[in-house]
Amino acid sequence: MSESSLSVIDYEDNNQQYNFLKCYIVDSNEQNAISKDDHKITAMNYVTTLSSPLTDAWKLFLANPQFQNNFNRYIKSVDVISSYGLSYFLTSIIRDVGYNKLNQYTKICLLVIQIGLLDLNSFDHLNSEEVLFVNSLSNILDSSDLSFLYDCYLNLTPLVLKPFLEAFPFQKFLTVSNDIDLKINNFSLLDLELRSYNENQELLKDLILSDLKNLTMNDAKLSNVEILNVLNKSVNIKGNVVDVYFGHQDTVEADLDNFSEKLSAEVLESIRQNKLVNHIRSVNANLLKLPSNFANVSQEERLSMKYLSHLSKTLGNESDDKSNRFFCHRNVLTNIIISINKRDTKGVNFRAFRTSSGIFLQPIEEPRRSDDYKTNPAVRAGFGFENFLSAEGELKNSYTYLMNKFNLGNKEFYVQSEIDSCSSDLKSFYELKTISQNGFLDANQMAEKCLRAWAQNFFIPNQPTTILGLRSKNHILSRVYEYTQSELLNEWNLYFAEDRSHLRSHSDVIEFNLSALSSIFDYIKTGMTSRALEKDTKTFMKHFNVKYRASDQSIHTSCFFSHLYDLAVKDDVNRATLFVRQALEALYNEHDYY
Q1: Domain total for the chain?
Q2: What is the C-alpha separation between 448 and 437, in angstroms, rounded?
Q3: What is the pLDDT of residues 250-264, one digit of tens each?
């Protein structure tokens, strides 16, 4: 489908048009939730309760003269709607307004139209294309009963169809003779009629299905969060990994008890009493003093794909659709969350690799960053803080990772998340960070520190605690604070409100992040499945960017480089950068760590 040149909605310069659309299709934070209290209620009675707001909002939106006068701005020419049909028209509206801004009533209107275009006789037997729309209807109406949902759809159809066909003059865009009486009484006939004027006289089934996928409900529900596995790796003085322990889901508790860093008894007791700040102050600890044999894990190991590749192999063929499986370093998700919340117009870059096992994500970072702890006192002090709080009083060259699993909509994520410390019962996780005294007093620096800590822990279960140490100019630890995830978010949100005169509830912030991530990874999945992998020696790589786009106040995902590598062609692989070559090798080699 041709990319539309849409410009109807301009939030900054055209308040009149924005306010008009906002009245009817944009979520204005009014009562949008639709739920049924009595599961025995009939579909007809249930749908009847939706009829007035549903019909009025949709009909007024389509019949408004201002919208009709500006309709040509949604399409490149008056012939476009005849060429591409109803799906193009609907997609254009949503691309312009932003699907996440639509209210529930408008979403139901669009969803019913989508199902109508599929001409389903029931919901009992669905293919992979059709189930997208039925699942969306199921989420809105809070029911998994297919018979009930189909009855709801049948009763919703006239409520949506009548105002849609009556209010908008589609005949204006059809080149027909005056003596031809159009008998359009359903969405499929309307779409067919529009498409019949395409110069090639084709229905373009694949095109309409791909368009309709973009209109499906954005399923941003987070579910099935669990710790799938534990990885512990020890490094030598050069930062090279010398020992790896790859655990198993059945032994997570014992593995973490054996391999994770332990906080001292004093620190744990202070946390339990919520008096950490009172128990540790003016401690005169020089955070730059690290154990003589301490080394940070090297950048090559930190960005390595081999552990994620190994995890994918242990999972085998659990997933029917491997393109729904994402294996990624936590740093990718962390930086995406930070970027979209900071409204960063430069955004964050990262790589994605697709193999027969799934899609793998890797950060794009500077090769020499692994030496930061040697040259950057602030980074070194961070490790010194971990050393000061540890139970043994000596930081080990040991790095523990949770192989965290969760579902975001219909996509499975397996994330390598480094943790600083945890309790043996897995009920408490701790993130250890430091900040300078000046940074603590600076609203901007403190907000950024809180946002990063909150983002790092976003997908880790049991609401981790962040312990923040204040360091002086001489890197002496002077005070220690503890923050829950909610308190971190509150610190960031207060700065966000002060800076942009807009304060959001915590639930709104979380919903925004899940919705944005769902859309971002829908885009990534579509981009990564656009090239076929003819054989197992091939892998498809793309570079992605996620940023905030000020022009339409949206989160924008784009691709700026792609390449199909064949490991059998050594010259092709050798032209890749260090971390790409490393990833290619890891994704196609078996690794035994048991």
Answers
A1: 2
A2: 14
A3: 888 888 888 888 888
